[in-house]
Write the structure tokens for this entry.
Amino acid sequence: MFFQLTRVKLDLNMEKEKLISIAQGLITQGKGILAADESTGTIKKRFDKIGLESNPENNQRYRDLLFTTPGIEEFISGAILFDETIRQTSSDGIPFAKLLQDRGISPGIKVDKGAIDLANFPGEKITEGLDGLRERLIEYAGLGAKFTKWRAVITIGDGLPSNTCISSNAESLARFAALSQEAGLVPIVEPEVLMDGGHDIKKCEEVTYKTLKTVFIKLAEHKIFLEGMFLKPNMVISGKESQAKADPSQVAQSTLRCFKEVIPKEVPGVVFLSGGQTPGEATENLDAVNKLRGVDYKLSFSFGRALQEPVLEVWRGEDVNIKVAQDAFYKRARLNSLAVKGIYSKEEEK
């Protein structure tokens, strides 16, 4: 019996060490995560803007452009993939997960099924995807995934968000995290307080605080190993339609004040989402946060649109534009790397 108990304890310790190793690789100083996990509907919207049809072939061509960009491993430590993408190969026939891993970039996978209306709570959403998740995680690990991501969305509005919406989404995030760690995968917990609306930065801070507080209560209830997970939150920022737009200094102060109250020091890293900010805004705010810092965990990025928008604008689906598109991607990755170090300058945008 003593041998069996000791063996179980050793196995648990080994699993924790594995999670720590993956997490530490992702939070390497000066590097961040590329969010290339756009769902079928989202990538269609992005391709519509450049007049390109979204289909498996064009989706593959675009992801191939991103993943084969020379030198991005200097600034990108991981890439979140969509279900379709992790099953695809590069133009050279190499599975995308292996291509990334060979470049020193850990492949991850979006595992939620998207946000739908929360019954009895108009204007609010709940994220689906827990059914069958344990089996899907085993499959994704076999396909090469090292980490996972689940996104929940919280809306600020008249009487919103409700306690029910925050609590329900936090519970789902915690259950997702538990199943991911069970499968040996590092979970990225993404509770996004949307910047849609005319609210000011004070309201965003209030809702972000309440959301993150609830999330970490639920993570504790589900015995999540904090050293083997990441948080992917919004920055505390003014609403898009706000008449009082906060500057980077205000964003940094409000964000860190909120984080210091609710994020445990055991969490190895916070990787911000860009949340509808322009590429320049996201980088400038990330830099401001890192200039101020004062927290135990590292502050990096997990940007989607803020890394890819300039790429799509110049690529437009044309092979002749691949080089200039990759140059645009490399530039944005490099600028965000500078921001992680707190040494970004707007002059670099020229």
